[in-house]
Design goal:
This protein is mainly β and 156 residues long. The protein has 1 helix and 8 strands, in the order H-E-E-E-E-E-E-E-E.
């Protein structure tokens, strides 16, 4: 079946059934690495586009709106407090296994930022959009330059 022919029935599609083992290494990139090092220091950084005035968190190297470069002068510290924009309760782990107890995940707009950051919400209380929250970091000796250096956000 040539690729230019229209597929009329699903059984005409060719498929390779089975599994393929893939391995890879994730690199955070220049901006991502600097952002993670900020978390290691207990700080949250963003980048503010000088043209659009939009502040990204996590920080970016280029503005997604105008494609302008975000250089050294674009880096700004944001938070550590912010507003919970939306949230959900998660009952299943990323691997599909059920969680022993549900976790709350939120979209947080940090003070000084326009973009939202997705992270865990800490505490057993019921959550509401619009409440004020603050970042909770691991103890300094335990930080390694990972997103998990930021444990999550708790209600103020």
């Amino acid at each position: 079946m040539p690729l230019i022919e229209r597929i009329q029935h699903l059984d005409e599609v060719r498929a390779w059934r089975g599994t393929i083992r893939l391995e890879g290494v994730y690199t955070a990139g220049v901006a991502g690495e600097r952002w993670l090092r900020g978390l290691q220091e207990g700080k949250i950084y963003g980048t503010r586009c000088p043209r659009c005035r939009y502040t990204y968190v996590p920080a970016r190297r280029f503005c997604e709106r105008c494609l302008g470069a975000l250089g050294e002068e674009a880096w700004v510290e944001v938070g550590p407090q912010g507003t919970l924009v939306a949230w959900t309760r998660v009952h299943v782990a990323p691997d599909g296994a059920p969680l022993a107890s549900p976790r709350a995940i939120g979209l947080i707009r940090l003070d000084g930022a326009d973009a939202v950051l997705v992270h865990e919400l800490i505490g057993d209380r019921e959550w509401e959009s619009g409440i004020r929250v603050e970042a909770v970091f691991r103890a300094p000796p335990e930080r390694v330059g990972s997103i998990r250096d930021l444990l999550g956000f708790r209600r103020l």
